[in-house]
Amino acid sequence: MSQTAVFTIPLTIIPMITDSRFECNICGKLFKKRGELTRHLNVVAKYNSLHSDLDTLPENTIHQFKVILVHYIRKRLPKEYRQLGKQTVSIPTTESQFYAVFKNHIHYYSVTKDIYKCIFCGDSSNQVLSNILEMQG
Ligand SMILES: [Zn+2]
Questions:
Q1: Contact at 8 Å (CB) between 44 and 104?
Q2: Where's the C2H2-type domain (predicted)?
């Protein structure tokens, strides 16, 4: 007759990195090396700091632009957009206006195409966007 002893061992689970890829948690891009991800994030940081040459807009101009943006986004996005997954809203604007509002949230910039992209994802994205645009309700 064999006895079964049951031991309780405090267990620490160390996540094994089986996937050797590094992911940008904003745009989801995958990189093979940490260095490549770091470089990507450095480039992104540059998009948000390079444009000291742009006009500084008066506060109320920025505010008015935000009001227009909120209106535009609400018109373009259906109410239930959160269930619809990724949504893209393209907004024609001047570079100064866009930069004034979305600085620090710019994730992609193309000089040749003159396109800026901001990516908002995850649970807090709605709140972040609301804060940027000073949305009420
Ligand atoms: Zn990214």
A1: no
A2: 22-56
How far is the C-alpha of 65 from the C-alpha of 92, rounded, in Å? 12
CA of 41 to the centre of ligand 1 (A): 7
Spacing, Cα 107 to ligand 1 middle (Å):
6
The secondary structure of 79-95, three-state, reads CCHHHHCCCCCCCCCCH
24 alpha carbon – ligand 1 mean position (Å): 5
CA of 43 to the centre of ligand 1 (A): 9
38-87 confidence digits (pLDDT tens): 999 999 999 898 666 787 889 999 999 999 888 888 887 766 666 667 77
Cα-based angle 49, 95, 38 (whole degrees, multiple of 5):
30
Whole-angstrom CA distances from 120 to 2, 15, 123, 130 are: 59, 27, 9, 11
The CA 69 to ligand 1 mean position distance, Å, reads 24
Residue 109 has pLDDT above 80, yes or no: yes
